[in-house]
Amino acid sequence: MAKVLNSVVESIGRTPLVRLERLTAQAGVKGEILAKLEYLNPGFSKKDRAALGIIEEAEKSGAIKPGQTVVELTSGNMGTGLAIVCAVRGYPFVAVMSKGNSEERARMMAALGAEVILVDQLPGSVPGQVSGGDLALVEQATKAVTAERGAFRGDQFHRDGNWLAHYHGTGPEIWDASHGAVDAFVDFIGSGGTYAGVARALKERNPLIKCFIVEPEGAAAAAGETVTQPEHPIQGGGFSSGANVAAALRLLRSDQSGKTIAVVICDSGLKYLSTDLWS
Ligand SMILES: Cc1ncc(COP(=O)(O)O)c(C=O)c1O
Fold first, then answer.
1. Ligand 1: which of 48, 73, 266, 275 to mutate, most ligand atoms within 8 Å of CB?
2. pTM of the prediction?
3. In what order do the strands lie in the sheet with 93-98?
4. How far does the centroid of ligand 1 lie from the alpha carbon of residue 26, in Å?
5. Topology, domain 8-45+163-278
6. What is the pLDDT of residues 218-235, one digit of tens each?
């Protein structure tokens, strides 16, 4: 039932699950794609959940002190989520990001009150494509700022609050909205928090549900393949919603024909207007 919330943070989660009926009809495939519209979170991405999960876990364990600065290496969405959660909970927030990521993301974090530190790309790197070398520079800068400010690092790649947010939220929400009628889940991984949390929650409810990781061709690290194209255009996880839907369509054309596949629409395409996503 609708009710008045005490802060915007309470509006994170409980996003709609939508059947992409026209898309599957147009593609002429049998089966269904159920899209979890995570861009309807207050920071316009699923990373709001991870941000809240990490801060709440740190508050519970005492890893973060009242008013302590929070620092995170982020390509934008995690930073946007942390900017919102930190503003509400009273923690100054510093986002460290590569100049290779889309401009909208940096502007949005700043507009939400974050201090944004932009790190130059390596000479010869392509704007819009953040390479491993570019990321190493951002990591170096993040470590330095965290130490300088005696800050708490969000550290989405290591903190349990990330995947637990999807284990307690996204996964059960997909299960409940579909009344358990999900045969498969596909997800493009960054930190792997969404995949880990949702896959675990779904498999606990029905071990037969198949869970697939989506990776760019030539950069399938989780599959154990040699990375031949580290400079793929899926920046820090961006463009990932399209990749998830494309992967679901491919599965419906092959071994998952006739099945119901859940995907995450991780953020909004409107965050990428300055990139080549639409060209
Ligand atoms: C747009 C987008 N898609 C996908 C991902 C990957 O999600 P996860 O870190 O939960 O694996 C991210 C993470 O930053 C993201 O911002």
1. 266
2. 0.93
3. 115-119, 93-98, 70-73, 152-153
4. 28
5. Rossmann fold (3.40.50)
6. 888 888 888 887 766 665
